[in-house]
Design goal:
The complex is a heterodimer of chains A (459) and B (132).
Chain A: E1 38-39, E2 42-43, H1 46-61, E3 68-72, H2 79-90, E4 96-100, H3 111-121, E5 123-144, E6 154-160, E7 165-170, H4 172-180, E8 187-192, E9 198-204, E10 220-221, E11 229-239, H5 240-247, H6 255-258, H7 266-281, E12 285-289, E13 291-295, H8 302-311, E14 319-324, E15 328-330, E16 337-339, H9 344-347, E17 350-354, H10 360-374, H11 380-392, H12 395-411, H13 419-428, H14 432-442
Parallel strand pairs in A: 3-14, 3-17, 4-13, 9-10, 13-14
Antiparallel strand pairs in A: 1-2, 5-6, 5-8, 5-11, 5-12, 6-7, 8-9, 15-16
Chain B: H1 3-48, E1 55-60, E2 63-68, H2 69-104, H3 120-130
Antiparallel strand pairs in B: 1-2
Helix pairs in contact in B: 1-2
The chains are: A alpha/beta (459), B mainly alpha (132).
Chain lengths: 459, 132
């Protein structure tokens, strides 16, 4: 192909910390969208995973934009896991923005501004850059300086690829930039035809010698293949928010780095929308509707919900995925009760996926996966005990115990976590039920116990 | 040969043919570029060496012919234009061929392939963003 790949320089592989959902690699579906019992870190929740898979396909095809999905279920039933799974299987090209419902309450910007920035982060624009370049290995470079020291320099540059070789005559300007880049025989260079910009890609492998004294930064590359004069096409994906930021730089170019962009004027947004639409009509850009994930969506208030209602109607709108663990509850900022704490009119637009509690077998499986993720060896009995704990208290508590028990085990120089280790951490750390039990028993000895307020309104 | 084997064979043949097609086009581009570069060298040589009135020896196939310089230059320039056009056409066709090959091999289509490029000004503006 006429396109060439510019070698990517990869620095140190990023060391990822182990998060609560770091074991999720995808939704665990087969080609026919049928969920496998255990796959890609996902366990159980077959029906909801299948539903998520159908939505995922639609997102990939670009069929749905401006739709919204609600994942509802009890705490610890894998809502966030499903959202993460969707994000993972969308691939790197589709923008995925995640935020928690309470994140938008900040003093720096209004709630709606925070929401619309999140919306625009979730929409990608694909554009293409096309350049004609000359790419080859320098065989010889010959520069003639006039004897007087002044006047025009002339020179010749011989370039080759694996297939061909040719001589270029050099003018004054090119000679200057070649010597500025310190180009010498054996270098692989590219010359941008339009601008005449020269860039050095590295040294040719054929010129690598054992005794050459080289700097550590010298990179060896293969001699390019094919024709000398190539066309390079690069496709970039940027988010609408990023374009917004450059075009509204009131605080100088530092804005992009600090992340503190402040509020973006709606005129700027409108201009950018118009430009992007123009590009799309000219075939210069593709719009990729991404996914915006709002966790704990019941934390949003009435204003945000009505904003969402409106924003979903816009033609540049991503797919909105929300998750909540509330049942029928009060909508924040009002006195009205509503299912999931979401107003009925918004609820009406949603596709709702329900998650159900895990069975014992599934809990066992999840604990096993987490053990692998956290590098903890678990004995068979300990596994059974932990599963029981997970069933009786909560899955999250059981998962917390994995790493703590692992530490206790390492302390006594064991290799495998035994039932004793689990017992020890179980006595050290309280789960939610035991903690409240304790509170009830020793209420009197805590501070401020005399203010016997009427029971808190938890609805 | 049973039906399944027959089908596999047919499929493989199709893939191989498509791949061969891509390779031939690539080679063709290389050959044309070779020619283009040789022409460019010739034009440079005509510009610098010799006075304008002299005739130059031009090689046609196996024969050298003495030819007026201006005529030669015109001829090569025409040839260059033709070559540029041909290479462009081949590149355009190559995209379709690579897409077809990807399709029959069941590989995903290359994204953003058939976008038209942004103009240099637009790229400059976007570059600010890309070179973070």
């Amino acid at each position: 192909m006429a396109t060439t790949k510019v070698p990517e320089v990869r620095d140190i592989t990023r060391i990822e910390r182990i998060g609560a959902h770091s074991h999720i690699r995808g939704l665990g579906l087969d080609d026919a969208l049928e969920p496998r019992q255990v796959s890609q870190g996902m366990v159980g929740q077959l029906a909801s995973r299948r539903a998520a898979g159908v939505i995922l396909e639609m997102i990939k095809d670009g069929h749905i934009a401006g739709r919204a999905v609600l994942i509802a279920g009890q705490p610890g039933t894998g809502k966030t896991a499903i959202a993460m799974g969707i994000a993972q299987s969308l691939g790197p090209d589709t923008p995925f923005t995640a935020l928690a419902g309470s994140e938008i309450f900040s003093l720096e910007m209004s709630k709606t501004e925070a929401l619309s920035q999140a919306f625009r982060k979730a929409i990608g624009v694909r554009i293409k850059e096309e350049t004609e370049i000359i790419e080859g290995e320098v065989v010889e470079i010959q520069i003639d300086r006039p004897a007087t020291g002044t006047g025009a320099k002339v020179g010749k540059l011989t370039l080759k690829t694996t297939e061909m070789e040719t001589i270029y005559d050099l003018g004054n300007k090119m000679i200057d930039s070649l010597s500025k880049e310190k180009v010498q025989a054996g270098d692989i260079i590219t010359i941008d035809k339009a601008t005449g910009k020269i860039s050095k890609l590295g040294r040719s492998f054929t010129r690598a010698r054992d005794y050459d004294a080289m700097g550590a930064q010298t990179q060896f590359v293969q001699c390019p293949e094919g024709e000398l004069q190539k066309r390079k096409e690069v496709v970039h994906t940027v988010s609408l928010h990023e374009i917004d930021v450059i075009n509204s730089r009131t605080q100088g170019f530092l804005a992009l780095f600090s992340g503190d962009t402040g509020e973006i004027k709606s005129e700027v947004r409108e201009q950018i929308n118009a430009k992007v639409c123009e590009w799309r009509e000219e075939g210069k850009a593709e719009i990729i509707p991404g996914v915006l994930f709002i966790d704990e969506v019941h934390m949003l208030d009435m204003e945000c919900f009505s904003f969402l209602n409106r924003a979903l109607e816009s033609d540049l709108s991503p797919v909105l995925i929300m998750a909540t663990n509330r049942g029928i509850t009060r909508i924040r900022g009002t006195n009205y009760q509503s299912p999931h704490g979401i107003p009925i009119d918004l609820l009406d637009r949603l596709l709702i996926i329900a998650t159900s509690p895990y069975t014992e077998k599934e809990t066992r499986q999840i604990i096993k996966i987490r053990c692998e993720e956290e590098d903890v060896e678990l004995s068979e009995e300990a596994h059974t005990v932990l599963t029981r704990i997970g069933m009786e208290t909560s899955l999250r508590y059981a998962i917390q115990l994995i790493s703590t028990a692992g530490l206790v085990c390492r302390k006594r120089k064991g290799t495998e976590v035994q039932v004793e280790d689990i017992k020890r951490v179980y006595s050290l750390f309280l789960d939610e039920a035991r903690s409240s039990q304790y509170m009830k028993e020793y209420q009197d000895s805590f501070l401020f116990n005399e203010t016997q307020a009427p029971p808190m309104d938890t609805s | 040969m049973d039906a399944v084997t027959q089908r596999v064979l047919e499929y493989l043949t199709e893939v191989e043919e498509a791949a061969e097609d891509v390779l031939t086009t690539k080679q063709q581009i290389v050959d044309l570029d070779k020619k283009r570069n040789r022409n460019r060298e010739a034009l440079n040589a005509l510009k610098t060496a010799m006075s304008d009135s002299e005739k130059v020896k031009v090689c046609f196939g196996t024969m050298f012919i003495r030819f007026p310089k201006s005529k030669t230059r015109e001829m090569i320039q025409k040839d260059q234009e033709q070559l540029d056009k041909e290479i462009n056409d081949l590149r355009k066709g190559l995209k379709a061929k690579v897409n077809r090959l990807n399709e029959i091999q069941g590989r995903p289509e290359v994204r953003g392939y058939n976008l038209s490029p942004l103009s240099t000004d637009e790229i400059k503006a976007i570059d600010n963003l890309l070179k973070r």
